[in-house]
Design goal:
There is one protein chain. The chain is about 45% helix and about 15% strand. The chain is α/β, with parallel strands linked by helices and about 950 residues long. The strands form six sheets. The chain has a nine-stranded mixed beta sheet with strand order 6-9-10-3-2-11-12-16-17, with helices on both faces. The protein contains 37 helices and 24 strands. The protein is globular and about 90 Å long. The two termini are about 25 Å apart.
């Protein structure tokens, strides 16, 4: 490799000087604002910044000015922002104002590092990774930022001087509503690790004005209202008014006199950049999360219509542009909803790629070599939402940059890579070809050409002799589904005879039964899932007219074909991807497929959210090295039976439980005992995650308690607080029924004087990252009980284990690897195995399933009306019957119920021996060392992106 260009400390200091000089011209009151910056500049430069490519040694150094700060300077900075960059009236310095001023003060410090990191990337022109995701579930930023900057103590002291405490100020920050589930939290953990490990990388997403929704729990169950996270402004973001890109929809494609294709007409909007700083831990590196917001130019406001009284018509173009970034995952039951979702996905891809290409061209100067693009750019697609990156990059390279198809395809394949989060082939994302043709006509042309190229590859691989095999492979692998073969392959497969209308009618229900959804059964994506059986209408069979199956674009197939790497997110998931989901592709291109087991950041998920436990770990391991090198956590194993260590460990857990008891009282009105076991299941509500299995187990427990005397129940059962949290997608009827059922059970159990503190059931409304940061450190048992083979990975299981929580779960997703690391004796295992699931469903369809008497007993108990007047026949009906959509217990709740109940008895037995339980808790933390997102990102960087770190010792 060529020698890396020099980037000196002098150039960095001059960039800081330019920042300060700009401040000096802004008015006479700038001095207090720059006091913090001046102090940083005058401090001895204690750390250096060195650059290393994958195959080279560190060569270039950039000095880092931040290592600490005094409280007086910080207090002055906060006071300055309260006065001179206010978002509140000047009369008072109350908590909301204190938060914003504090955040602006922290942002000043981050801007120094942020700008230096920008400049470093530009000067060195290293290869940079870009992580595209529809979700980034960031959580609150204040404590994370000052923790990473090692300024927590100083900011706490400064705020005390100003009459506030840091914890109260931090609570006034709303969670950024940029995600919902594990997909978004995973992306945010990855950003933290990218910055901490000093990798040149950015994130790209959308700036949702209202997020998914704010969840309220009422007597009717879940209620959705618009999220208001931006109502008071966002002090962390910087709008880049000079960075915006056009994004086109609709229109038509014409051939120009130059032989190029031109996409003209249609609807044009602008995507504007909003940047958020992502600081690394104990490092100067501060990377960027760039979010796109959409708008239309002012001239699109029809003043004539407005003045004529037609205000809605006048504002239509502006409203159409702005609503693209209103809501995360708008419901797609309607055509309008589908169009809006596809617009969101294309906006993310188009604006991000235009930005990436502009940066590549600027850094290249006058010597642009497009063949070097993959040597400077790596694009990682987090699930299939950014799939349109592939045809969009092709469009830009061919139509706008003048490259040939062969050149553009080579560049695209070497640039893009795909992370799969979905284990079910039927749950992979698809889009209507007609809808996409209307909205993105040029992209459909490109996708058709990629599909034709793939057909040629398949024919070359399998030959024409075995037509049945060839037809099977084409059906599995083509990007376009239910679309005739191109004319060049028209005679490749014999056309089948037309089926009778009656035969089609008889099979029509079968085609859509069980799972007829796009819902990603994975580590985070939230889309709709239809609840209840479909209506088949009232027409007689002989009157049914056969309709051709819809023509679809299979986004996952496009990802596999168009990228150079495909990775699963847990060992068992990656094997399912190779053996089942993409088996034909794996046989064709085995080297494309990899595993990258998910990880979570130990900074947010132990160090900052669990300071009591962190202090103990640091004391007993001898240093804070474990925060960056989680392998040090394994050393806790040698203290697992130490009585003093166990006493401290239990005290930390008790302290965290008392905080959660206060939270539950505040959020729900329920009082719980911190001496009870805290049993927690928090994740998005979905049938495959089986919150229904959990609550039915609780109902069975409650029924058995009621049948005993007070003495008997106290002897048999340990006190439990069963905590649920998570959102059901607004149109997912069955998931919303589960939420309602949980809250109804809680309302009955929690007010039963015979049971008292022996059992409580609490649903925490509006579960988010900030709530998780309280619940996870307090947890003692955590439920990860998805149907085996349906959870790609999960990441909350890792967070719970890191915090000394013992898991009960199936052999699914990352549970498999967690159990291996923490030890089989420290994990409560139950349920069917992934390889058994298909056979068990077939047995059910043939009527061979015999339900356990305990399962029938608990259903009958629910139907007595003990939990209120709500009719739960539809909910329980999903667990009954042998076939049919919304029936036949597709997620095997009944099959696993007896195993689950028996496993819970083992949990009670273990918890009664607190010395044993504490040992298990310690072993979970010690065994979680492999599940850091630092390890995951290092593997991405090495194996997929081929980038090296900018090392800050």
């Amino acid at each position: 490799m060529a020698t890396t260009p020099h980037f000196s400390a002098t150039s960095h200091c001059s960039s800081v000087s330019r920042f300060v000089d700009f401040g000096s011209r802004s008015g006479g009151k700038w001095r207090s604002n720059l006091l913090l910056i001046r102090t940083l500049r005058s401090r001895p430069l204690a750390r250096s910044f060195s650059v290393k490519n994958v195959s080279s040694e560190p060569k270039t150094k950039l000095e880092n000015p931040i290592s600490g700060e005094d409280a007086s300077s910080i207090a002055s900075s906060i006071k300055h922002h309260a006065e001179f960059t206010p978002l509140f009236s000047p009369e008072k310095f109350e908590l909301p104002k204190a938060f914003v001023a504090t955040a602006q003060s922290v942002r000043d410090a981050l801007i120094i590092n942020w700008n230096a990191t920008y400049e470093c990337y530009d000067r060195l022109n290293l290869k940079q990774a870009y992580y595209l995701s529809m979700e980034f579930l960031q959580g609150r930023a204040l404590l994370n930022a000052i923790g990473n900057l090692e300024l927590t103590g100083a900011y706490a002291e400064a705020l005390t001087k100003l009459g506030h405490d840091l914890e109260s100020v931090a609570r006034h920050e709303p969670d950024a509503a940029l995600g919902n589930g594990g997909l978004g939290r995973l992306a945010s953990c990855f950003l933290d690790s990218m910055a901490t490990l000093n990798y040149p990388a950015w994130g790209y997403g959308l700036r949702y004005k209202y997020g998914l929704f704010k969840q309220r729990i009422t007597k009717d169950g879940q209620e959705e209202v618009a999220e208001d996270w931006l109502e008071m402004g966002n002090p962390w973001e910087i709008v880049r008014n000079d960075i915006s890109y056009p994004v086109k929809f609709y229109g038509k494609v014409v051939s120009g006199s130059d032989g190029k294709k031109h996409w003209i007409g249609g609807e044009d909007i602008m995507a504007v950049a909003y940047d958020l700083p992502i600081p690394g831990y104990k490092t100067k590196s501060t990377i960027n999360l760039r979010l796109w917001s959409t708008k239309a130019p002012a001239e699109d406001l029809d003043l004539s219509a407005f003045n004529a009284g037609e205000q809605t018509k006048a504002y239509e173009a502006l409203a159409n542009a702005e609503k693209i970034c209103y809501i995360l995952y708008p419901g797609d039951n309607s055509l309008e909803g589908k169009i809006l979702r596809l617009k969101q996905q294309y906006t993310l891809c188009s604006a991000s790629l235009q930005d990436i290409i502009e940066r590549f061209e600027r850094r290249s100067g006058s010597n642009i070599k497009w063949e070097d693009f993959p040597e400077k750019v790596a694009v990682q697609m987090n699930d299939t939402h950014p799939t349109l990156c592939i045809p969009e990059l092709m469009r830009i390279l061919i139509d706008l940059k003048g490259l040939s198809w062969k050149e553009a395809w080579n560049i695209t394949q070497r640039t893009t890579a795909y992370t799969n989060h979905t284990v079910l082939p039927e749950a992979l994302e698809k889009w209507s070809l007609d809808l996409m043709q209307n909205l993105l006509p040029r992209h459909v042309e490109i996708i058709e050409m990629i599909d034709e190229q793939l057909i040629n590859t398949i024919v070359s691989e399998y030959g024409r002799e075995d037509s049945d095999l060839l037809e099977k492979k084409l059906k599995e692998m083509r990007i376009l589904e239910n679309v005739d073969l191109p004319s060049t392959f028209a005679n490749l497969i014999a056309k089948p005879k037309e089926s009778s209308a009656a035969a089609i009618s008889e099979n029509s229900d079968e085609a859509g039964k069980l799972i007829n959804e796009k819902d990603e059964v994975d580590s985070g994506d939230e889309t709709e899932s239809k609840g209840g059986p479909k209506s088949t209408g009232a027409r007689k069979k002989e009157e049914v007219v056969a309709e051709p199956p819809p023509k679809m674009v299979r986004m996952a197939n496009l990802c596999v074909v168009g990228g150079h790497a495909v990775n699963g997110v847990a060992a068992i998931h990656s094997e399912i991807v190779k053996d089942e989901v993409f088996n034909s592709f794996y046989k064709l291109w085995p080297n494309k497929f990899q595993n990258k087991t998910n990880g979570v950041t130990p900074r947010r998920w132990i160090r900052f959210c669990n300071p009591d436990l962190s202090k103990i770990i640091t004391e007993w391991t001898g240093s804070e090295e474990w925060v960056l090198n989680t392998e040090k956590l394994a050393e806790l194993r040698k203290f697992a039976d130490n009585e003093d260590f166990q006493t401290q460990w239990r005290a930390a857990k008790k302290s965290n439980k008392m905080k959660v008891a206060s939270l539950l009282k505040e959020k729900t009105g329920y009082s719980v005992s911190p001496d009870a076991m805290f049993d927690i299941q928090v994740k998005r509500i979905h049938e495959y995650k089986r919150q229904l299995l959990n609550i039915l187990g609780i109902v069975y427990r409650y029924k058995k308690m009621k049948e005993m005397s007070a003495v008997e129940r106290k002897a048999k059962y340990v006190p439990r607080v069963c905590i649920f949290g998570g959102k059901a997608f607004a149109t997912y009827v069955q998931a919303k029924r589960i939420v309602k059922f949980i809250t109804d059970v809680g309302a009955t159990v929690n007010h039963d004087p015979e049971i008292g503190d022996l059992l409580k059931v609490v649903f925490v409304p509006d579960y988010n990252v900030s709530v998780a940061e309280l619940l996870i450190p307090a947890s003692e048992l955590s439920q990860h009980i998805s149907t085996a083979g349906m959870e790609a990975s999960g990441t909350s299981n890792m967070k719970f284990a890191m915090n000394g929580c013992i898991l009960i779960g199936t052999l699914d997703g990352a549970n498999v690897e967690i159990r291996q690391e923490v030890g089989e004796d420290n994990f409560f295992l139950f349920g069917a195995k992934a390889h058994e699931i298909a056979g068990l469903r077939e047995e059910r369809a043939m009527g061979k399933f015999v339900p356990d008497p305990r399962f029938e007993e608990v259903k009958d108990f629910v139907r007595t009306g003990v939990f209120g007047s709500c009719n739960y026949n539809e909910l329980l009906g999903s667990l009954e019957g042998n076939e049919g959509f919304g029936r036949a217990d597709y997620f095997l709740v009944g099959k696993d119920f007896p195993s689950y109940v028996e496993c819970q008895e083992k949990v009670d037995e273990a918890y009664q021996d607190q010395r044993r339980w504490t040992n298990m808790s310690i072993m979970n933390t010690a065994g979680s060392y492999k599940f850091s997102s630092d390890r995951t990102i290092h593997e991405y960087a090495k194996d997929i992106w081929n980038i090296g770190p900018i090392i800050l010792p």
